[in-house]
Amino acid sequence: MRSRKRTIAALAAMGVCVLALAGCGEAPAEEPISTSTIVLAADGSFTHYRVEDFDREYYQLSELDSMIRQEVQNYVSGAPGDGQAVAVEQVDTLEENRDQVMVSLHFADSSVYEDYAAQVDQQSRSLFYGTVKEAIAEGYDLAAVLQDTKKGTAVTAEQLNKIGDKLVLIFEEPLQIRCPSKVLYISGNVRLTETGYVDGTEGEGPKYVVIK
Question: Using an 8 Å Cβ cutoff, are 46 and 85 in contact?
Answer without folding.
Answer: no
